[in-house]
Amino acid sequence: MTETERRSGVRTAEVLVVDDEDDIRELIELSLLRMGIACDTAGNLAAARALLAQKAYRLCLTDMRLPDGDGLDLVAAIQAERPSLPVAVITAHGSIETAIRALKLGAFDFVTKPVELQALRELVRHALGVHERELPAGESGDRRLIGRSPAMAQLRAQVEKLARNQAPVFINGESGTGKEVIARLIHALGPRAEGAFVPVNCGAISPELMESEFFGHRKGSFTGAATDKQGLFQAARGGTLFLDEVADLPLAMQVKLLRAIQERAVRPVGSHSEEAVDVRILSASHRDLAKLVAAGQFRQDLYFRINVITLHVPPLRERPEDIPELAAHILARLAEREGTPPRQISPAALAALSRHEFPGNVRELENLLERACALCDGNVIGPEDISLHPTEGLGQPFAPYGWDDGNGEADAEGEADERIKILRMLDDTRWNRSEAARRLGMTLRQLRYRLQKWGME
Asked: Based on the domain organization, do 262 and 407 belong to the same domain?
């Protein structure tokens, strides 16, 4: 029987702690015992590998620097041989680059030295929750992500893998591909599923209110601050914060966001102290962040911090074989909302949809089918019920946002073309300007500017 077993009276160790410092091992061991969790300890890689070969652990916690090798080697070996075993790393304070390398190799999460016990306990709870959470029948990723194409099968496998760790994920894809659906699924399949999922559209918040919205504020900190208010980070504590259209963040806010992510703490407006926040960061954009970094429009350090792992969502035109299943799913949902039997779609209508380029992706398909249900007289949707607009020029986002030059002016022909595109998209979305802006690849503010200029606001 090990010393841990004698202390705890528990014969089965659930956690393996690997560190060459006796006091660190004992600190972690005692902290785990207070949580009712037994552990084994090892002082080097060789001892850790020997224990891993003998026992089935639920979590491995390893230091990065060991006498006979690098902790990253242990992370890589566990990912290759036992990918279902969460492994977390202990890094020196300030070694964010090393921690990011570990996350890219598949580490679940990291803590920094000196070890903060509350952060350690939260990490352990989340890690063990990976195995405790079982999705009920019918709620698997297969049913939540619609489509059987090879691209969707690959995406589904990536989502299930990423749900097991705490690495920041950047979800890249065109407008309407379902980036928020992917983010919600990563959250729901992971150990933070019982926590809050807090989505925020970074392009829809006024720059003057961003700091207060993200970090909260104290009563009296500015005109109108009548009470204390928690921010988005505090609302997502213990869960997931989803930064949609993160490319729209102003540079000044990017600096503050980077600090909050790195320090895992925020300072509310008007407060003199920081408060710890335990959140997982997921972000998304339809724009190419690397190009924005090269153009000086997005901070490189924030780019590397949120882009630890990139998940690409394929556009609908690259998986037309998924359209029949998607259409059936959407029609069933519409019928449930209206309290009517689901309409069917004719083979001719499906063929027409399969030939369409879908610049607006799944969101455009939803709008087309909702309109078709409103126009259809019977129970079967035919090609005459589907209004497919020409897609030439709509498949790419504006560069930077259409016909504007550096001074915000435009040539007459370019302005006329964009006006047609914007009006058509507004018609498709029933003048839902937020949806239209997302599908056009611009911010809501930029869309409003154009409408005001044309006297249509």
From this structure: no
| 111 within a domain of the structure (yes/no) | yes
Would you say 183 and 284 are in contact if contact means Cβ atoms under 8 Å apart? yes
Strand partners for 39 = 15
10 Å CB burial of residue 1 (0-12, 13-18, 19+) is: exposed
- Dist CA 42 CA 20 (whole Å): 8
pLDDT (tens digit per residue) in 363-410: 889 988 988 888 888 889 988 888 776 554 444 443 333 334 334 444
The CATH number of whichever domain residue 334 belongs to comes to: 1.10.8.60
Return the bridge partners of 280, or none.
240
Collect the ranges in the chain with pLDDT lower than 70.
1-12, 93-95, 130-144, 223, 389-417, 457
Residue where a domain terminates, one of 100, 132, 164: 132
Helix (H, G, I), strand (E, B) or coil at 141: helix
- Residue 327 token pair: 């259409």
- pLDDT tens digits for 75-130? 988 888 888 788 988 887 556 777 778 888 888 888 888 888 888 888 888 888 75
State how far the Cα of 261 lies from the Cα of 246, in Å rounded to an integer: 14
Q: State the Cα–Cα distance between residues 89 and 43, nearest whole angstrom.
A: 14
SS3 for 402-422 is CCCCCCCCCCHHHHHHHHHHH
At 48, the amino acid letter reads: A
What range does the domain containing 448 cover?
Answer: 397-457
